[in-house]
Amino acid sequence: MSLDLEQSVTNDTTKSDETTGDEINSPVQADEATSTAQAVDLASEYESSGVADVLAELDRDLIGLAPVKQRIRETAALLLVDRARRALGLSHQTPTLHMSFSGNPGTGKTTVALKMADLLYRLGYVRKGHLVSVTRDDLVGQYIGHTAPKTKEVLKKAMGGVLFIDEAYYLYKPDNERDYGQEAIEILLQVMENNRDDLVVIMAGYADKMDMFFRANPGFRSRIAHHIEFPDYSGEELMGISERMLAEQNYLLDEGAKQALSAYIELRRRQPHFANARSIRNALDRARLRQANRLFSQAKGPLSGQALSTISAADIRASRVFQGGLDVDRNQSGDGQ
Question: Model-level pTM greater than 0.70?
Answer without folding.
Answer: yes
